């Protein structure tokens, strides 16, 4: 049996993506500590970073502290609100830059997100001879992203491990095309510290089972 314990791993968590996926699919919160542990496996953790959004009220501080207690570093940026009423706090560029600057120092990049916008980043990581692995909820994960993943963990397959709290709302509805829809009353009840979610279309739900691939 091959020994992969020497592999150096960096985990990057798109907090907003996982938070809203868990909330709108199952009405629960994410156990980020278990997410990191699952993505790491028995390998060597170099760093685990969660990208979060802060507000002037500071209501999200307990959440940030909970992440830090599990050993997860946090990077925060303020929520921007424009005169039009639009709220925005997009971490895609920040996550991309950090992964690009880290790729030469590790053997494996683990991305906790289902956002298909990260496909070019996956291509970049693999072009540098590194493993690119994805951890996410399959229902809100772009199939194009999984096509580039060397390994995938579907958090929806073990809800007891990766979700915490009582269900607070019915599951999200899915269109025939595989697009997750957020009910109007649900969207309006989302916390102010994050913009409204944007879910990916999942054209190929057949690949929903977790898989582990090795070189």
UniProtKB/TrEMBL annotation:
Return the annotated region ranges for Disordered: 167-215
Listed GO MF terms:
RNA nuclease activity
Top-level lineage group: Bacteria
Q: Which residues form the NYN domain?
A: 8-155
Q: Which Pfam families match?
A: NYN
Q: Per its UniProt record, what InterPro entries does this chain match?
A: LabA, NYN
Fetch the PANTHER family from UniProt.
SLR0650 PROTEIN (PTHR35458:SF8), SLR0755 PROTEIN (PTHR35458)
What is the protein name for this chain?
NYN domain-containing protein
């Amino acid at each position: 049996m091959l020994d992969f314990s020497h592999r150096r791993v960096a985990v990057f968590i798109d907090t907003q993506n996982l938070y809203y996926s868990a909330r709108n699919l199952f009405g629960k919160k994410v156990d980020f500590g278990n997410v990191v542990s699952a993505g790491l496996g028995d390998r060597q953790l170099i760093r685990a970073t969660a990208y979060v959004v802060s507000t002037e009220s500071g209501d999200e501080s307990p959440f940030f502290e909970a992440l830090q207690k599990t050993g997860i570093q946090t990077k925060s940026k303020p929520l921007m609100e424009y005169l039009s009423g639009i709220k925005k706090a997009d971490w895609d560029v920040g996550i991309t830059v950090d992964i690009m600057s880290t790729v030469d120092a590790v053997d494996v990049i683990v991305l906790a997100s289902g956002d298909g916008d990260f496909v070019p980043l996956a291509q970049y990581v693999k072009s540098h001879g590194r493993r690119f692995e994805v951890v996410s909820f399959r229902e809100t994960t772009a199939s194009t992203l999984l096509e580039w993943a060397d390994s995938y963990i579907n958090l929806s397959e073990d809800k007891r491990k990766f979700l915490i709290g009582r269900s607070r709302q019915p599951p999200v509805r899915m269109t025939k095309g595989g697009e997750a829809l957020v009910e109007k009353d649900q969207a309006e009840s989302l916390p102010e510290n994050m913009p409204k979610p944007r879910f990916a279309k999942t054209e190929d739900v057949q690949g929903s089972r977790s898989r582990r691939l090795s070189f």
